[in-house]
Amino acid sequence: MQERFWQAIVANDAAYDGTFYYAVATTGIFCRPSCKSRLPKREHVRIFHHREAAIAESYRPCKRCRPDGIRLPDEAWVAEMKAHIEERFAEPLSLATLSEHFYASTYHLQRTFKRIAGVTPLMYIQEIRLAAAKKLLITTDMPVQVIGSQVGMSNAAHFATLFQKKTGLTPTEFRQQPVH
Ligand SMILES: [Zn+2]
User: Fold this and answer.
1) Per the database record, which ranges form the HTH araC/xylS-type domain (predicted)?
2) Which of 72, 146, 148, 169 has a CB 3.0–4.6 Å from the CB of 173, allowing a cystine?
């Protein structure tokens, strides 16, 4: 690989967009030079001058920089992330898993999410989990600990502490309230 290509990738240099694409052997994804995805290892990078050539070798276009067409606006990107969180809140989600799924650095992902959603991704995950926990507390007889793990917080003590901090009540007190 020519040094100037590598430097363009390192610098997310938009001036090179359209002149080449780079594919990453380990992820099977290809990107524009300006993509804010995590910097791959140099030895895993392959340069393509035409996106068709990358596609022909079974590389998939990055969902972030959309080398196959129009770049997704940040609003739509954050909406996809929110939908992902709402669907998978019960799974072990973290900034790292999100950044893996959405092909972006944790820094860029967090910054964009916060700017558009008004809260960090982790705060949003918490909100969704607590809302789901409240619903289960009211509508089921499941033990508190089980509810915690059902909503992605398998550490019972952590779940109870967070719940109380956000609602002012322990999960049990919340459940016993006559009116919600
Ligand atoms: Zn990309």
Assistant:
1) 79-177
2) 169
